[in-house]
Every structure is written in C-alpha cells, then in structure tokens.
Amino acid sequence: MVMLNMYNEDKEVTIYATTEKLRYNPKPLSCQDKVIDESDDENESDSVCPSQESYHSLHSSENEYELLNYGETYAYSKMNPFMKVNSKFLSVIAFRRSLNHYALTNEFEYVIEKSDLTRLTACCGDKKCKWRIHACLTQDGVTFEVKKFLETHSCTRSNKSGNKHATQGWIADVVTDKLKSEGDVSSADLKKWLMHTYNVEVPYMRVFRGREQAYTDMYGKWDDSYVNIFYFKQELEKRNPGSVVEIDLQIVGEKKHFLCFFISLKTCSKGFLAGCLPYIGLDACHLKGKFNGVLAAATSIDGNNGMFPVAYGVLEAENTKSWTWFLTSLQKAIGTPNGLVISSDMQKGLELAITQVYPNIEHRECIRHLCSNFKKHFRGDFFMTKLWEAANTYSVSKHDKLLNEIGTKCADAISYLNENHKKIWSRSKFGTPVKCDYITNNISETFNSWVGDIRYKTVLDLLDAIREKLMERFDNKRSKNLGEYQICRSSDNKAEVKFKGYRWDVVLDEKKCICRKWQVTGLPCVHAAAFIAFTREPSWEKYVDTYFTVDKFKEAYALEIGPMPGKD
C-alpha cells in the first residue's frame, strides 16, 4: 500500500510504503563513487566528470521530498537543506549532494578528511573553525546516517568570493526546476539567479556547462538524437502507412550530415484534404537547444476555425533552399488542392520558395508583418489606421480610396507598398474559393505557442513530442465530435441516455424525457438532442412543439386590426 501526500506551499511529497522487506540486494557503491570528490572541481574543463552525472541522476528534480521506508526518514531539500544527528541519506552520494547544498546555502566551504564506501568525515575549510560532521554506513549496507555534527561556525561567510562546492553538477541540479518551469533561461540570467538565491559567485563558463548538463539530463544528449533519426523515420512510416517522412542529408566523404527533417502524417494530410479549408499558414520558429535550426510548420484551419497541423519539420536555417525542400515535401503529401491559399510572414527565402513550388496559388502576406516593416519607413498613426482599414475592407473601391488617402499624404508610401509588398494583403483582393478572410498569419503563431514548451528538446524528442501532441489533439477532437452522451436504444423511438453515471429515459414520438424539460419547454432537452442526433436522418423540426414553428408565428400576426378615424 502506498499513500502520497502533497503540499503545494512547501513543495513536499511524502511517500508512505509498507514495512515489508523489499526483495533485492543493493549493489555496493562503485569505486568511481568512492574516490571522486565533487567539491574538488577547480578546473574549468569542458568535460563532465562521471561523478557529476551520478550526482544529478540519483534523485528526482523535485525541490523537496521525504521518503519513509522501513520506518526511517530520508530527507533532502534543494532550497532549504538541513543537517542534524540521525539524519539518514540514501547513499554516500546523496549525503555528499545534500552536504554541498547545505554548505552553499549556509555560505561556507568544507574539506573532506576521510571518505570511503563506509564513512565520510568533513570539517570547515577554515582550520580555526570547529564545524565538523561525520556520517557512516548503517547496517543495511546502503543508507548513510549522520552520527556526529558540530554545526556552529566561528568563521566568516565565503560564497561571494566563489565557493568550490558550486560545481557544474551542483549547478545542473539546482537549475533543472527553473529551466523546466521557465523554459529557455540564458546562462547570464542563471548566473544572476544563483547569486540572488544562494549568494554564490560562479564563473560564467561553469554556469554555461551546468546549464548544458541540465538540458542533457532532462532531454538526453543532442548528438545521440541524430544517430537514431533514421530508425525514427522507419518506425514512423511503419506505424503510420501513407505518411510522408523525408530526411535531407549532406554527404561529405564518408560522413552524413543531417540538414532537414519533414513529417506529414497521413492522418494530417488526408484530414486536411477531406475536411479543412484549402488554406495553409507557413512559419518557422527557432529551436532553443544546443544546435542552431528552426522548427517549420504548415498549419491549416478546420471547420470550427481551429488550428489543424498539416506538416512540420526541422530545417537547418530559414533560406530559399530549406524552404523549397520543405514545400516540395509538402506538395508530395497534399498536392495542390483547388483554391489553395498560402499565408506567410514573408520570412527569409520563403517568398521565392513558394513561387518555385506553388507558382499559381494565391499567396497572402500577413498585414501585421507588413505594418511592422512599413512603420520603419513611414511613421504616424494616420498611416497605420488607413493600412488596417484597407486590409479589412471587402470593397475594392473603398480599398483604393484608402490607399489614395495615404498617397495624398505621402506618395512615397504607395511606391514603397507597390515595390516591397506585392503579395495579397487586403480582403478586397482575396479569392472566393477558400472561404477564409484571415489577414494575419495568427494560425501559425498558434502552432508556435502550442509547441513552445517543447522547443528545448533534442531534435528527435521534439519531433516525437509533436507527434504525441497530435495524437492527443486528434483524439480529443474525435471525442468531442462523438459526444459524451451514450445512447442505448430499445427501439427507434425509445432509448436510455447515459452521462457521467446518470441516465434518462427518452421517448421521441411522445416528445418526452424523464427530466421533464422537453415537456415543459416544448424544445428538446440535451438528452433528447443526443438521441435525435444519434438517429440516421434527424429531423429536428418534428420534435419541436408547434408553438415554435414558422406557421404558428405567422398565424399569431395574421389578423389585422381595423383602422380608426380621427377625432375630427
């Protein structure tokens, strides 16, 4: 039996486990764990020492937790570490990890006098100070327990001049939660945060490497993701037959260099062709991981004006070559639907790529992007107001009138628009087949926001995370379409309608539901509506009381009131 208690205020989780002895034999610590002292990280090497990897991966990333097992308490806290006699730790590494946090929080340095598989003794770095701690292995062969502890210091605080216990592994450990909650935080900001939170000065490069290690611990190694990219492609095509999955490589000698990746799942491409508007927004956002690159996406609109991802992928950069490759792959997946419209923010190289791959489609430019560029050359609320009005109007004559007003104020402004913004940006020039009057590319921004919290992952994990989000989104949309009411028919006119453990009897030909709302109002209740929609050919008007019909409405006002002569 396991019981979890969570406290948001203190960010603590307490886990109670049975006292039945676990059936496993814990392995002794390795020699590596035995001999390496993480506090002795004076050099600024680019490598990550083995003990630092163990140091971080041993524990969860929760700020604070307590684990009770065999009736004993193991305690660890990042933000408020504590030490006392009889405190128990899962291993010598866990003890040293907590000791590091304790030293940094209390602003002192310590020196390890003795350290092996069975014991650890440390004293204050100031030889005149009496602070001292001793912990040793307990009878279970794994747990470390504090036996002696003199916690009073007579020395001065030492963090501001740099604390040797602020190692790369420690930095990776303490910044993990911050990176998870806030996303991409620069090394400079983390350096300031460490100073503010722990009052410790840390060299910039150590913070940088600690940040990189934290990302590696959270999302895996970036280099490994490229090694497995072909297996991912193969598995994706196997599990989703008919999907278009492409990889672009550069071969230099015997080496293959990854450039671009494109994915259009059959579910997305066929769904777009079958049920979405022939409208696609193109955009790309920068990846926030170790390597440069952008996440590109082709996004459409469903019948409910919702975002519908059609294709996505990773490009080496925003240039004509990459965008042409992406659009060629997109054309392979969806072809060129009748009335296709592509909207974009006119990113670098994208305009030429669209012209090359889709030369005959309607290409719209986002008015927000246009205005952003326009006001760099022509300032004033007058211009912005008239431009937005010209973009919003459906009338060709009104559009021309508004541009003439701009031209009257400044003829160069019209010349600038004609030379630099030749694509369609006004509703007055939109074609009619697409049935979409969007003048911005907000649908692409919606996609960027949708994937914002996973753009820090490795390339492989990022692509797979988007696939998982698509699975969840499509499932939610299907569930919404099917409805949450379950219909159990007993005949063509009678059924039980179930919802969240409740049920109602509905009789269609009698216009009756056990909830009585249908009988009282004359309009089908939600339970009746679910049953009516379930039938093959629902005829809604026959289930509405005659009082609400057009004929009844006409009858109510059919008779005339005779006119009266005046008082004269």
Describe the structure.
The chain is an alpha+beta fold. It folds into 4 domains: 3-216, no CATH class; 220-363 and 442-479, no CATH class; 367-439, no CATH class; 486-554, no CATH class. The chain contains 20 helices and 20 strands. It has helices at residues 31-35, 50-57, 92-105, 168-182, 187-198, 204-219, 222-227, 229-239, 266-275, 320-334, 350-357, 367-374, 381-392, 396-409, 411-420, 442-450, 459-482, 517-521, 526-534, 550-556, and strands spanning 3-7, 12-16, 64-69, 72-77, 88-89, 110-115, 119-124, 132-137, 144-150, 244-252, 255-264, 279-286, 294-301, 307-315, 341-344, 362-365, 486-489, 494-499, 502-507, 512-513. The strands form 4 sheets. It has a 7-stranded mixed sheet with strand order 10-11-14-13-12-15-16, sandwiched between helices. Strand 19 (502-507) and strand 20 form a beta hairpin. It is extended. It starts with a strand and ends in a 12-residue tail after the last helix. Mean pLDDT is 79; it is low at 1-75.
SSE inventory with pairings:
Blueprint (H helix, E strand, L loop, with lengths): L2 E5 L4 E5 L14 H5 L14 H8 L6 E6 L2 E6 L10 E2 L2 H14 L4 E6 L3 E6 L7 E6 L6 E7 L17 H15 L4 H12 L5 H16 L2 H6 L1 H11 L4 E9 L2 E10 L1 H10 L3 E8 L7 E8 L5 E9 L4 H15 L6 E4 L5 H8 L4 E4 L1 H8 L6 H12 L3 H14 L1 H10 L21 H9 L8 H24 L3 E4 L4 E6 L2 E6 L4 E2 L3 H5 L4 H9 L15 H7 L12
Helix pairs in contact: 2-4, 4-6, 5-6, 10-11, 13-14, 14-15
Task: Put the structure in a nutshell.
This protein is of the alpha+beta class and 568 residues long.
